[in-house]
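Annex B.
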Amino acid sequence: MKILFALFLLALTVSSAYAQCKFIILVTTGDREDAGTEARVSLSVSTANGKKLVIKSLKPWGQKGHNNFEKGHTDKFEGSGKCLPSKPCRMLLESNGKGNKPGWFVDKVAFTQIEQKNLSQKEKTFNVNRWLARDESPGTLFVVVDDCAK
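PLAT domain-containing protein: predicted structure tokens.
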């Protein structure tokens, strides 16, 4: 009997570890001259224990036919996948630096995870407030925001 109960608990733990979630990501481009970009943008968010959600390109998660990452706009991206076990606290946002106007000024990225089974939510806003551009300080095409130690 104890073995059956232990197997039941193990199965319950494994099934919750692979729960499916909906992800909503809001990316706000700054309201500065030439702040928008046509570059491909990728995003990775992770928890304090290193569990990650990696999105190689945000474009497929956005509105079809919509011009994303324009000056002063907030763009919405939605997708689904395995839930993160806890609230994310670290973000890597990256531009490939290609296309017309590759430089990009990012204000912030808001991340929401909604577990499809019980509708519980985990939310985190990552304040960026900087350029992702080779020709603007700090001269990089990526930013890491790490709030895990806070």
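The CA atoms of residues 62 and 77 lie 4 Å apart. The chain has one domain: 21-146. Further annotation is deferred to the next reporting cycle.
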